[in-house]
Amino acid sequence: MARKYIDNPNACSLVHTMNVIGNKWKPIILYLLSNGSLRFGILNVLIPTISKKVLTNQLKELESDGLILRESFAEIPPRVEYSLTEKSKGLMPVLKNLSAWANSAYPEIEFEECRIIEHKASEHNND
Fold first, then answer.
1. Sign of the torsion angle spanned by Cα atoms 35, 93, 22, 49
2. Count of alpha carbons within 13 angstroms of residue 19, beta-carbon side
3. Is 11 exposed, middle or buried (0-12, 13-18, 19+ CB in 10 A)?
4. What is the distance between the alpha carbons of residues 35 and 119, in angstroms, rounded to a whole number?
5. Which phi and psi (to 5°) does residue 29 adopt?
6. Distance, CA of 28 to CA of 107 (rounded, Å)
């Protein structure tokens, strides 16, 4: 399936950001990886409503956009782990703020606490 983009003729940074992370799965994948590297099978278990095909496509797009690293290990059976890049670590405070916004805007919903690891600002200034 071809990637869908929002037209961005004025090169708006917000439109670009939404093109990179603005679907329903990518922020969740990034949130899960904020706590450390994960294998494909674990991600698939942690997001039970995502199909393997969609998860595969989302991981490929995140890797292509420089937001996650895919590391293959020469083992039998083969092992692949995904982790955040320095660039994506800068998104963690944004995702945490979105979570805080939902908690304050919808107090009638009992949300689980999102545990997004805090990354130092200096860690992602190199990207």
1. positive
2. 15
3. exposed
4. 11
5. -60, -45
6. 21
The beta strand positions in the chain, using DSSP E, are 38-39, 68-73, 79-84
Task: Provide the 3-class DSSP secondary structure of residue 120.
Answer: coil
For 97, the token pair is 């703020």
Class of domain 13-124: mainly alpha
For 9-58, write each residue's pLDDT tens digit: 777 888 888 888 888 899 999 999 999 999 999 999 999 999 999 999 99
Question: Which tokens go with 118?
Answer: 């805090």
pLDDT in tens, 73-106: 988 988 999 999 999 999 999 998 988 899 899 9
Query: How buried is residue 116: exposed, middle or buried, by Cβ count under 10 Å (0-12/13-18/19+)?
Result: buried
User: Which tokens sit at 15?
Assistant: 């439109």
Model confidence, pTM: 0.81
DSSP secondary structure string for all residues of 69-98 = EEEEE--SS-EEEEEE-HHHHTTHHHHHHH
